[in-house]
Amino acid sequence: MPEVIEVDFLRKEVQQLLVGKTVLKGVLIKESLSNLNANQFSEILEGKTIIGARRKGKVLIIDFSKEVSLLTHFLLTGFARFYEQCPNINYQVALYFAGNGCLLINGIMLGGFVKILRTDKVFEEDGVKELGIDVLSLDFTLDRFKQILNSNRRKTIKQVLIDQHIIAGIGNAYSDEILFEAKVLPFRKCEDLTNADTENIFNVKEKVFERSIAFGGESELSFVHLDGKRGEFHKHFNVHKREGESCPICGTPIIMKKIGGRSSYYCPNCQKEEA
Prior knowledge:
The protein is of the alpha+beta class. The protein contains six helices and twelve strands.
């Protein structure tokens, strides 16, 4: 699933490549993804110009002229591509631009969405309004993180990190990598974390994000950049999806354990019950 870093790459790429482009035609093939039918989708986007892009958690928000915004949640396997010359391929959503080029969106599964809203209503919409604080927000400080853990002290740290209603943007892969770097077991309860644990988790997330950015994000499933290039971070995971392989630090076999119905990967030697 595209997580915070991947969706933020797309936000930046929309800013760089698509701002100023005017929609000649919008096409919605899979109406179940949207809050509109195909005719409404096309009618609203026609003639609108892209003026910017934002993100909340894993939701990409593209803003158009005349107070129109397009919200996309790619879920596990969705992706977006920009083409200078539009190919004859399958897609779920397409934006054809005046002059040349198109943005194609495909691969979104049940639970993902592509919605059109008034720009001033974006943060009131289902799928956005219930999201917690964004993990890259300047408001997400160490003190705020401590408050979050205190409010969810009976939950495991893994559950808190991946719950989008609590902290928006972190998913399964990044939570595993963050907890490995922090040397904290994913099933430890928040109430059992020391101040050192809490500070370590908060601080090392930046290290993990910076590594991911350096590798262009992770394309374990279907994420690609708008130009079609794939990220490489998944090839450099320390623990995620590496069950039975050797820990890169100590050589101990990596373990997978289900926590709250989600697979968690960790090193039982490097990650401890207590710091």
